[in-house]
Design brief:
This protein is mostly helical. Helix content is about 75%, strand content about 0%. It contains 21 helices and 4 strands. The chain has a two-stranded antiparallel sheet. α19 runs antiparallel to α20. The chain is globular. About 55% of the residues are buried.
């Protein structure tokens, strides 16, 4: 049965117009190559998380600026994804895929050899630029290599799984590499290997791309330079302002914070105006005309905002409060990989029989419950308990009871989210818009992650500062009463006993509220999905024109 009541002629494509999707003898190898590239760009969003304390100590980077190692990559990645997607549509997706991988590899080399904060942050931004070229091309190449139905569902499930597993693998790999002090007999700081490992992977993938991937058709058009400039700078302004608001030295009422936020909003408004008037917009409004896509984009901006913040705060919590070493902390996230693989595999099998709303809606509810339980991890913040934890090398928190179950729950839930959301976000996108459609999806994920980290860092810092001001006096008194010197340095660190004790009491307070707000963000994503995502499972099994429902 066919329903054409919602048919939009501007969106409709026929089989003659669509870019042909034909399986090739290299389809399996092509998928492996695409997944390898996706793994590389995703794991770099988290691979440096566990190394942050070591990077900060080695390059003298402040605690506040450490977040820019994560946020800077996510922002450059997300801010330029639209441009990367459109460049792929105009000049060939395989070409942009190869260029992006090569750029990523060079940037990783610079990061691994960085000797200053500025050079490291610049290399992270350059990595983001390379990823912004490779990622949308990779997703678009899946849609043009695998036909709609079971084959594409399986390929998308693998892609979505890699998107989630990559974050966990980044933490595990980052933990292992950070713990090394030599490689092949050469003395090296382990954190540098978290960057250098990308160099051979990126170069080999770029070399193999023309041998296993078919080039897409190029589509005529002009590059929307004003849109690219205003859109990218607008996003930069918003996230920079939020990050400044979260820093103790600035805050919400600081002139730099206000100026950055206002400038970001103005530039994004200008971007919207430009896109509505130019003949060849960077972001065609028709991309959002479809309710299913618009809902998917919105949900895939909010949910990663909560998930990436979870990785950031939980990795620091496990190391700096529970006392796990870098490798041990990495393996603490190993269950996330198994959970998301299982969740994505289940969603892949069910998406052809159950509507995406029920799968993704249930997944976000499970993830929200896990985030809430992270906010309930029991931490005794009293002076006696904190000083005891310093002496024992970590707080008395049972990983298996208070962390493991909820890592599994969240990963399973996110696996249930990523597969149907990825399918619905790119379904029915016109062939000439495949790259920009993929770019919008990736933009929502990466910018959502950057905005989420900036916002939740603001929340965490606010409550951490309040707690620190309350416990500073009692902590100093407790140290003196125990026969210690509050100003003496903790062995192996640059912190005094008083500073370490204050951190041990204040950081959990901030992280607790960050997890709580993250759970509310995930519930917001769930509400969007349940309320507005109404695509039928039968429609996802076809490449039928927009508005034609099969079933």
């Amino acid at each position: 049965m066919t329903n054409v009541e919602s048919l939009d002629p501007a969106e409709t494509t026929s089989s003659a117009d669509a870019e042909v999707t034909t399986p090739t003898k290299h389809a399996g190898l092509a998928l492996v190559l695409i997944l390898t590239a996706q793994l590389m760009v995703v794991l770099d969003a988290t691979i440096a998380n566990i190394a942050l304390p070591y990077i900060g100590a080695d390059l003298s980077i402040s605690q506040a600026n450490l977040t820019w190692i994560v946020t800077g990559y996510a922002l450059a990645f997300g801010g330029l994804l639209l441009l990367g997607g459109r460049l792929g549509d105009l000049y060939g997706r395989r070409r942009l895929f190869m260029l992006g991988l090569a750029t990523f590899a060079v940037a990783s080399l610079l990061g691994g050899l960085a000797t200053s904060e500025g050079l490291l942050l610049a290399s992270r931004a350059l990595q983001g630029i390379g990823a912004a070229m490779a990622a949308p091309a990779a997703l678009a190449l899946i849609t043009t290599t695998f036909p709609a139905g079971p084959q594409r569902n399986r390929a998308m499930a693998a892609y979505a799984t890699m998107s989630g597993v990559g974050a966990a693998i980044g933490l595990i790999l980052g933990g292992w590499l950070t713990g090394l002090d030599s490689f092949l007999g050469i003395d090296v700081d382990g954190w540098r290997l978290t960057f250098l490992i990308n160099v051979p992977i990126g170069l080999v993938a770029a070399f193999l791309a023309p041998r296993v991937l078919a080039e897409s058709e190029s589509h005529p058009g002009e590059m929307d330079i004003p849109g690219a400039i205003t859109g990218t700078l607008g996003l930069l302004g918003i996230v920079f302002g939020l990050s400044r608001a979260g820093e103790e030295a600035y805050g919400w009422d600081h002139a730099q914070t206000i100026t950055s936020l206002v400038a970001g909003v103005v530039l994004l408004v200008a971007f919207a105006v430009i896109e509505s008037r130019v003949a060849h917009p960077l972001l065609p409004i028709r991309i959002f005309a479809n309710r299913t896509r618009a809902t998917s984009f919105a949900a895939m901006m909010i949910a990663p905002a909560a998930m990436f913040a979870m990785f950031y705060f939980l990795s620091l919590f496990i190391q700096q409060i529970m006392g796990f070493g870098p490798l041990e902390a990495g393996f603490a996230f190993l269950p996330f990989s198994f959970g998301i693989v299982f969740g994505a595999g289940l969603a892949s099998n069910l998406v052809s029989r159950i509507d995406a709303r029920y799968l993704a809606g249930t997944g976000t509810l499970l993830a929200a419950a896990a985030l809430f339980m992270f906010s309930r991890i029991p931490v005794d913040e009293s002076p006696k308990a904190v000083l005891g934890a310093l002496a024992d090398g970590g707080a008395d928190i049972n990983y298996w009871a208070h962390v493991f179950p909820f890592i599994v729950l969240m990963s399973f839930g996110m696996g249930m989210v990523f597969v149907p959301m990825t399918l619905t976000a790119v379904h029915h996108v016109r062939s000439e818009d495949s790259g920009i459609g993929s770019g919008v999806l990736n933009t929502m994920q990466q910018v959502g992650g950057a905005l989420g980290l900036a916002t939740l860092s603001t929340v965490a810092l606010h409550f951490s500062n309040n707690q620190a001001s309350e416990v500073a006096g009692p902590m100093a008194e407790a140290i003196v009463a125990g026969g210690g010197d509050p100003n003496a340095a903790v062995p192996g660190t640059d912190l005094s006993f008083l500073e370490a004790a204050i951190f041990g009491s204040s950081f959990p307070e901030g992280a607790t509220h960050a997890f709580l707000v993250a759970s509310l963000l995930m519930l917001a994503a769930s509400a969007v999905i349940w309320a507005f995502l109404n695509v039928k499972h039968t429609e996802l099994a076809t490449d039928a024109p927009e508005g034609v429902h099969v079933g």
